[in-house]
Design goal:
Elements lengths: L7 E2 L3 H6 L7 E2 L51 H13 L2 E2 H10 L21 H4 L1 H17 L6 E6 L5 H10 L9 E7 L3 H15 L3 E6 L5 E6 L4 E5 L10 E7 L8 E6 L2 E9 L9 E5 L5 H8 L12 E4 L1 H17 L2 E9 L8 E4 L2 E3 L9 E3 L2 E2 H7 L5 H7 L4 E8 H7 L2 H11 L3 H15 L8 E8 L33
Parallel strand pairs: 4-5, 4-9, 5-8, 9-14, 14-18
Antiparallel strand pairs: 1-2, 3-11, 6-7, 7-8, 10-11, 10-13, 11-12, 14-20, 15-16, 15-17, 19-20
Helix pairs in contact: 5-6, 6-7, 9-10, 13-14
Length: 503
């Protein structure tokens, strides 16, 4: 069993500029072992199998993201496959959004409802699962905002799609190292539908705060809804962000949440925009039961999501785009909550500041697989369009909020994960962990984690950070300064390179 150490670091200069009142040294979270799990699994940036939609010229043509199988046999017909195929034969093709939703959140056969999907035993690994440094520095970022807002006495953390609860647990450990913050955190609110993940999240949080469950409330399905811990803190679960009623100062975090929201796909043809949809594939030439087709006529989705917004008029014939209307809805809910609570939020995901065209992908057992292979057994995700997230906040801008009745909400970014973590002092934190590491293997784990999080060809550039905050906040939040910040990324193969113990 490893010894727990308390690590002290000097505050990065950017943090002092952000909050002059912060003159003491930063006290980061207790050092826990950095797990070697990052060495296993597909890198989320290796988008080597993407849908080539250029061949979608007629409703009868579908383009898989791999070459057709020479095996004439079809994959097994699972209950979910049968359910979707029957629906298509009765009502017509599904939108891509409907297909994603059924595969991910079907109450019985959905991917998120039936198995462990995070970490080395799951299908993918997220930044918080790679290293404690990620969650600790997110906690430090929220601390600088809290201090800049004159340290509200009551705080709640709200996380969208918290996975196993690793990120929020690391954040709590980091925040609780600040003496001024102790006793301030009143509750943790998790927007999570999966009953199994709720249990896992509670375990992560109780370990982080060192408290046991005092009493709990469950719904009619025996699923966790509210838990009171022996230290007085509350943990609550909601399926809808708008259901949160408490108005305490809010730290909101959404890490790899928006990428899992269902997207619609569209192609601009010689007849205008047409929706790409999912139809049954009875062909013996592929092992899959579904295929892409183009709707022969304009669908309601084209009218509502493309033509009504005017955002995509500049696209040329042949262009394919992915649009996520639920992202706009969530951004409105986030803005309403932060405006009401005077809070700040951090959105972290992979994507770009423009619409994606063919980013929708499936991951199973840490490998990219065909989008239509074994529905419900693979994780589906798409690149986040950060330009859409920012556009969604226009009703909350300084000019619009004066007449719309909406609260004033500001936003910054996106900036790269590499830039953000460098600004937050990840290299200083890595040096501390290296000094505390007592074996060569642990030192290598720290260096490998640093490379995985920061390297341009891994997570450092493809992952982006976007900040959102109530209009009361002054200045630019830490990590979102415009100037680039050079960062030495350690080589995991060479012990001599990167942050060294004692230096």
């Amino acid at each position: 069993m490893y010894t727990t150490l308390r690590i002290m670091i000097s505050p990065p200069q950017f943090a002092l500029r952000t909050c002059r009142a912060m003159s003491s040294r930063f006290c980061l979270a207790a050092l826990r072992p950095v797990p070697p799990r990052l060495l296993h699994g597909a890198s989320p940036v290796s988008h080597s199998r993407q849908i080539n939609a250029r061949g979608l010229s007629t409703p009868a043509i579908a383009v898989p993201d791999t070459a057709p199988s020479t095996d004439t046999g079809k994959e097994p017909i699972t209950p979910l496959v049968k359910e979707m195929a029957d629906e298509i034969r009765f009502r017509g093709p599904l939108s891509v959004s409907q297909y994603m939703r059924r595969c991910l959140t079907h109450p019985v056969y959905g991917y998120y409802m039936q198995q462990q999907v995070f970490g080395a035993k799951g299908d993918f690994i997220t930044s918080p699962e790679i290293s404690q440094m990620f969650g600790e520095l997110i906690g430090v970022w929220f601390m600088t905002n809290w201090l800049a807002m004159e340290s509200p006495k009551r705080v709640q953390i709200v996380e969208l799609g918290p996975g196993r609860g690793t990120l929020v647990a690391d954040m709590i450990r980091s925040l609780n190292q600040f003496r001024k913050f102790q006793g301030v955190l009143q509750r943790v609110v998790l927007v999570e539908a999966s009953p199994k993940l709720r249990e896992v999240q509670l375990e992560s949080i109780t370990k982080a705060v060192g408290a046991a469950v005092d009493r709990e409330e469950r719904n009619e399905f025996k699923h966790l809804e509210k838990v009171w811990l022996t230290n007085g803190m509350q943990v609550a679960w909601y399926e809808n962000l708008a259901d949160i009623q408490e108005e305490d100062y809010t730290f909101l975090v959404a890490h790899e949440f928006f990428d899992a929201l269902p997207v619609f796909k569209f192609k601009k043809t010689d007849q205008g925009w047409r929706e790409i949809m999912v139809d049954v594939d009875d062909s013996p030439e592929t092992p899959y039961h579904f295929r892409y087709v183009i709707a022969p006529e304009k669908t309601q989705s084209v009218t509502a999501l493309i033509e009504a917004t005017g955002q995509y008029d500049h696209h040329a014939e042949g262009d394919v785009i992915e649009v996520c209307p639920e992202a706009t809805g969530y951004m409105h809910k986030i803005a309403d909550l932060l405006g009401k609570c005077n809070g700040s939020g951090l959105i972290m995901d992979y994507g770009n500041d423009k619409p994606a065209n063919a980013s929708l992908r499936a991951i199973r057992n840490h490998q990219f697989t065909h989008l239509f292979s074994h529905p419900g057994l693979s994780d589906l995700s798409a690149d986040v369009d950060f330009s859409l997230l920012k556009w969604s906040l226009e009703p909350y801008s300084f000019t619009a909020s004066a007449t719309s009745g909406k609260p004033l909400v500001k936003h910054w970014g996106p900036t790269t994960q590499r830039h953000f973590l460098a600004r937050m002092g990840i290299e200083d934190r890595a040096r501390q962990l290296l000094r505390a590491a007592d074996t060569h293997e642990r030192k290598m784990d720290v260096r490998t984690a640093m490379t995985r999080l920061m390297a341009a060809k891994q997570m450092g550039v493809v992952y982006k950070m976007m900040a959102v905050a109530s209009g009361e906040i002054k200045g630019t939040p830490a990590g979102f300064e415009l100037a680039d910040f050079p960062s030495a990324v350690p080589d995991p193969q060479a012990e001599q390179k990167g942050p060294e113990a004692g230096k």
